[in-house]
Amino acid sequence: MPSDTQQPAFVLIRPQMGENIGAAARAMWNFGLDRMRVVAPRDGWPNQKAVAMASGAGRLLDEAQLYDDTAGAIGDCDFVYATTARPRDLTKPVFTPEAAMEDARQRIAAGGKVAVLFGPERAGMENDDIARANAIISVPVNPDFPSLNLAQCVLLTGYEWRRSTVPTRPVTDGGVSEPAEQLEIDKLAQHYEERLETAGFFFPDHKAANMKLNMRNLWSRMPLTRADVQMLHGIMRQMVRWKERG
């Protein structure tokens, strides 16, 4: 059974090669997506080449919904995006994949049902398919070579969906990689200022204030972790000890 996770349906319109359908299934499952709909696959369904290519994502093919036409595949959806390299003179909102998946996330969170259309490998979607969509997803590719493989387009869109729904945060490892708090950075800055003051670094006197300000600005630009702060404190203490021993 498909997962309970709220997500868009990915609709493959008239896909031509089983291998590309299987690769699209793998790409979807990489990012936790398992609502595949397939419209009129050229080589029939089920497709053993798709199964072989899907590898660990074969479940998506077993549960994929098969439709005769695009209208049937999106009939239960209230907002549809069409992935295409160009709008083809149809007046519709145009999103990047990132903006589209953020928009989709908000619509689904509000109770909407969303689908994303992906066209055939050789020529992409026809205007009749695009006309059924509410908005277009246009990937900012090289204009001299705008064609994307079906699985590549699914992968890119799935990645942006995952980014919009799974918050990113610094990796923590027992506090080693936790971001340093501002108080910790402030104490580090004070430690360096005091020791450098003693060493006569802030010279001449009329430039000292500006030099200290520049150092504070330096600390604020650095994405320091707590481990970084501890190490920098240790470096300064060791340098002072070495100087005193000398």
Strand arrangement within the widest β-sheet reads 3-2-1-6-4-7-5
Write down the overall mean pLDDT: 89
Q: Portion of residues in helices?
A: 40-55%
Estimate nothing, just give the exact number of structural domains. Answer: 2
What would you call the quaternary organization? Answer: single chain
Show unreliable segments: none
CATH superfamily caption of the largest domain: SPOUT methyltransferase, trefoil knot domain
CATH class of the largest domain: Alpha Beta
User: Globular, elongated, flat, extended or rod-shaped: what is the shape?
Assistant: elongated
Compute the separation of the termini in Å.
Answer: 73 Å
β-strand percent reads: 5-15%
Radius of gyration: 27 Å
Given the helix and strand composition, which structural class is it?
A: alpha/beta
Query: What is the architecture of the largest domain at the second tier of CATH?
Result: 3-Layer(aba) Sandwich
Biggest β-sheet description? 7 strands, parallel
Counted by DSSP, the helix tally is 10
CATH topology of the largest domain: Alpha/beta knot
- Please tally the β strands and state the result: 7
Order of helices and strands: EHEHHEHEEHEHEHHHH
Describe the structure in your own words.
- This protein folds into two domains: 9-165, 3-Layer(aba) Sandwich (Alpha/beta knot), CATH 3.40.1280.10; 182-245.
- It has helices at residues 18-30, 48-54, 58-63, 70-73, 97-109, 127-131, 150-165, 182-198, 205-221, 226-245; strands at residues 9-13, 36-39, 65-67, 79-83, 94-95, 114-118, 135-137.
- 48% of the residues lie in helices and 11% in strands.
- The model has no long low-confidence stretch (mean pLDDT 89).
- Helix 1 links the parallel strand 1 and strand 2 (36-39).
- The protein has a seven-stranded parallel sheet.
